[in-house]
Specification:
The chain has 208 residues and is of the alpha+beta class. The protein has 9 helices and 5 strands; from the N terminus they run E-E-H-H-E-H-H-H-H-H-H-E-E-H.
């Protein structure tokens, strides 16, 4: 699937221009433990390997998959969208930090705070990887006044971006996280339990 330029930070490739290369699309949810396991394995064992071993052959796309039965899922993915808007090169470092600390945003840990309070914590997390904390919060904050047209569902600075992400993901019919698509087709052989070595074996077999 095509990747809109404003979401370019979601793609990790070995410094190649868009062309006929293999694509792994990772549909991940920031508050899904299995997504965290997959992403953290990839960032520690596989992403550093790609430029040396698969230059010009493979790109990874992180598809942000909101899981609505986790109420905080929308909020954490909005934070990812804010980072993409402000500093796309920080999207992967931010995602790694968020996955490492995802439990801080599980149901029990957000239930007693307001939406904007959760956004403040997410903005602070973005600040830890070098993104301007105030700017992130500025994109996330929900105002307390109606919109100019009197509307009360005013959204925030990344609402429209999130709508596009959701629309793109719905086109695939993906439900479970994590789900991996290889060149546009669901790759059921890849599991969240993959070790770094298993990922390397899979890449050796499939990336030619």
């Amino acid at each position: 699937m095509a990747l809109a330029p404003k979401f370019a930070g979601q793609a990790y490739s070995a410094e190649v221009s868009p062309k006929a290369i293999h694509t792994l699309e990772l549909f991940l949810d920031y508050v899904c433990p299995f997504s965290a396991k997959m992403f953290l394995t990839l960032t520690s064992s596989i992403l550093p390997l790609l430029p040396q071993k698969y230059p010009g052959k493979l790109q990874l796309i992180f598809r942000q998959q909101i899981q609505p039965w986790h109420p905080s899922s929308t909020l954490v993915h909005e934070a990812g969208a804010a980072v993409l808007r402000l500093a796309p090169e920080k999207f992967y470092p931010f995602s790694q930090r968020l996955f490492e600390r995802q439990k801080e945003f599980f149901d029990v840990n957000v239930v007693k705070e307001t939406r904007n309070e959760t956004y403040r914590r997410l903005a602070k997390l973005a600040g830890e990887v070098g993104v301007d904390e105030k700017e992130v919060y500025g994109l996330l904050e929900i105002g307390e006044k109606p919109g100019e047209d009197g509307g009360l569902n005013v959204g925030n600075g990344v609402t429209d971006d999130v709508k596009v992400m959701v629309k793109v993901n719905r086109l695939t019919g993906v439900h479970v996280t994590p789900t991996v698509l290889f060149n546009g087709v669901i790759e059921n052989s890849i599991s969240s339990s993959f070790t770094g070595e298993q990922w390397k074996e899979w890449l050796e077999k499939n990336i030619k």
